[in-house]
Request: fold
Amino acid sequence: MSPVTRGFHGRRRQPEGSEGRIPPGQYVTEDFPVLSAGPTPHTPLDQWTFSIRKDGATRRSWTWDEMRALQDETVTADIHCVTRWSKLDTQWQAVSIDTLLDQVDQDASYVLAFCDGGYTTNLPVADVTGGQAWLAFGYDGEPLEPEHGGPARLLVPHLYFWKSAKWVRGLELLDTDEPGFWETYGYHNYGDPWREQRYEGD
Amino acid sequence: MTAVTSETRAVRTIALDLPEWPGHRAGQHLDVRLTAEDGYRAERSYSIASAPGEPPAITVERLDDGEVSPYLTDELRPGDQIEVRGPIGGYFVWEARNDFSPLMLVAGGSGIVPLRSILRHRERCASSVPVRLLYSARSLADVIYRAELDGQSDGVEVIYTLTREQPEGWTGHTGRVDGALLAEVAWPPDRLPLSFICGPTPFVEAVAAGLVGLDYPPAQVKTERFGATGGR
Reply:
């Protein structure tokens, strides 16, 4: 239990209808803030591919057009950033990661998502399958903007949003877990917002 | 909280006495948690303004529609207790031993805070790494740490650009940071500079893209952003 802060009352209560949807320590924003560790990359679509790799070898790869020809869906999800903003009912156009992994014969336990700009993030396979994760290329009916991760980013809404890697270019299949970028800089390895797993040791 | 210093009309530096503070690195941030009597709590992250080895301090800009910053700038008094967690973050960090790369620091508004920690760290370590700081502020009165920045020692060039209002006779830069200004003041890429950019998102996007346009390798351009939502 936290000590009461003298003279603090708080202004921003959670909006109506959001009960049970805001993880602890989060507040709802209408904006879409941007957080990245470096410059925004701009990969032309004719050079873009999405690859699934194992031990450095590409097991399956899609060009942009091949990816866009896959079955896609509209995903509505609440997203939660470790910097404490949550955004409700975001709408994405996306291909399920199940659809991609189904085309590869694999039994990996973890994936390391890799991205333009060198960013990586690690996830258990159990968290990117079963209709829980997507490759998102559209937001709010428009192509996904580069500063929000376009042309395509991961969407894993049940984990803190740094796991939804921007500018993603593929998944490396792993038998043992390997921390990604923020996970080596003091952030939590798994990142469940409902258990407030923000930082290492939470 | 031990002391508050007024930096500008809307900005205060808040000194903290944290007996269990493990020490921080230049560029890291900390989390502040405020708890109301009914148990409601609000938490935000703030960049650490002091150098490693100095007592931790944060510099906070009051956002009028914010929830935490008006409390910290207007209500908090010396002797009051707040909950703090940190230090946090290990990427937007400069170590004095990285002295083979000149530093290109670019600040927008209160984005100067973690860069000031870097400057103080450099001075305390007697590092001779050359630094250029490009600082974009609305007006001279909005420049945070102005006396300290104007008193920088050899090897640190401070370049201001004033975007909204300039004093009479101002001969410095005006307007937003763009590719032309960066080309004029940034280290040439063949000096292998390491750059740290901090400010609001559109500012950081523009500066980072500008430096990459000058052939800075993206991996040598570190960014830290704050949104318009009172995130900091």
Notes: DSSP finds four helices and eleven strands in chain A. The CA atoms of residues 183 and 189 of chain A lie 5 Å apart. The longest strand of chain A covers residues 85-96. Chain A touches chain B at residues 2-13, 25, 27, 29, 31, 33-41, 83-85, 117-118, 147, 181-182, 184-186, 199 (CB under 8 Å).
